[in-house]
Amino acid sequence: MKHVIDAIELLSSAHITGEAVAEQLRAAGNCEVEVTRLERDGAATEFLSIVIPGLDETAPQLGIVGRLGGIGARPAVTGLVSDSDGAVVAIAAAFKLMAMARQGDVMPGTVRIRTHICPRAGTRPHHPVPMMRSPFPMREMMSHEVDPRMDAILSVDTTRGNRLVNKRGVALTPVARQGYLLRIPETMLDVMGWVSGELPVTLPLTTQDITPYENGLWHVNSLMQPAIVTGAPVVGVALTAQTTVPGCATGVTNAVDADVAMRFCIEIAKLYGQGAMSFVDETEWAALQSRYGSMAHLQTVGRESAGEA
Predict the structure, then answer these.
(1) What are the tens digits of pLDDT across the range 226-263?
(2) How far is CA 63 from CA 15, 49, 232, 299, in A?
(3) 307 pLDDT higher than 70
(4) Among 24, 66, 191, 218, which one is least packed by beta carbons within 10 Å?
(5) What does CATH list as the number for 2-308?
(6) H helices within 186-251, ranges in order?
(7) Nearby residues of 93 by Cβ (< 8 Å), 6 or more positions away
(8) Is the pLDDT of residue 309 over 50?
(9) Cis previous bond, 75, omega within 30
(10) pLDDT tens-digit map of 90-112
(11) How many Cβ atoms from other residues are within 10 Å of residue 19's Cβ?
């Protein structure tokens, strides 16, 4: 919980920058941090790449993507917005992993964490409540947020603006991989039950939720967008609420739920790095490919009425 609160306090500043976050991370322990600033047409954000080395360089490497439009909507809105959860959880996880390493508990495999710091993002209309607007096109964002060395990905995002999960807490999505939606691993359900102390909750997805934003179709949010640029399996870790909450609302960041999401990510990192669990049953995956072929076209914008997009 301490690391979640520290991350919330850090990101709540109107003056926060990616480099300021990076300085705090470097001071916290053994990590590699890179900051990449993207600025164009009045929009700007700073991407953070955080690498926490594990004991075994050959072990599977888990990716944690803190997905969001922005941590703030200044000057229109004052303060940390609901949409900031992805960045809060990702940065808190980095702090926690380094604290564990300082105390002698190093992850078996390397953990790669990506997110971005945008205190002045815009908003966009969305039913049932407005959402934060990404500062740049989604595929461009994903080119910075997804590391090709991530063997599997947990994508963490605020998902309080939906009517499918009417419960406060953390929900898991099915596994998305190359256009397919696959079953959630039993181990993940176990871990979520253990860290939350409650029965696991799942967020239903439709096919269009795992397609690119650029196709103009409705998406529950950007939680699953990492799946459009990678062949690795992606599971969404969604922070939810009983009511529908706009992404630009302030005063709604819930440290308890963020802590559950952070601890879930860390427990999965332990098991995945040990080789004690996988995101996908490779036998079933091969059978799906053999029987039904590739669905990778769902990672593209697809066909328009006038032909190929």
Answers:
(1) 999 999 999 999 999 999 999 999 999 999 999 999 99
(2) 28, 11, 10, 19
(3) no
(4) 218
(5) 3.40.630.10
(6) 186-196
(7) 3, 64, 111, 113, 262, 265, 266
(8) no
(9) yes
(10) 999 999 999 999 999 999 999 99
(11) 14
pLDDT digits (tens, 9 = 90+) for 60-88: 999 999 999 999 999 989 999 999 999 99
Q: Across residues 29-45, what is the average pLDDT?
A: 96
Q: Where are the domains of the chain?
A: 2-308
**Alpha-carbon span 89 to 156, nearest angstrom:** 7
Q: Would you state the structure tokens that stand for residue 309, as one six-digit string?
A: 């997009």
| Nearest Cα to Cα of residue 162 among 194, 103, 205, 112 | 205
Task: Give the list of residues 6+ apart from residue 207 with CB closer than 8 angstroms, or none.
Answer: 181, 298
pLDDT at position 2, please?
Answer: 97
CA distance 86 to 43: 20
In this predicted structure, the answer to whether residue 205 has a pLDDT above a threshold of 70 is yes
Q: How many CA atoms lie within 13 A of 244 on its CB side?
A: 12
Residue 71's contacts (CB-CB under 8 Å, 6 or more residues apart) are 11, 16, 80, 81, 83, 84, 87, 117, 118, 119, 121
Burial of 307 (C-beta count, 10 Å sphere; 0-12/13-18/19+): exposed
Residue (of 194, 25, 46, 15) closest to 115 by Cα position: 46
- Residue 305: C-alpha distances to residues 298, 302, 309 (Å): 16, 10, 9
- In angstroms, the CA 3 to CA 10 distance is 10
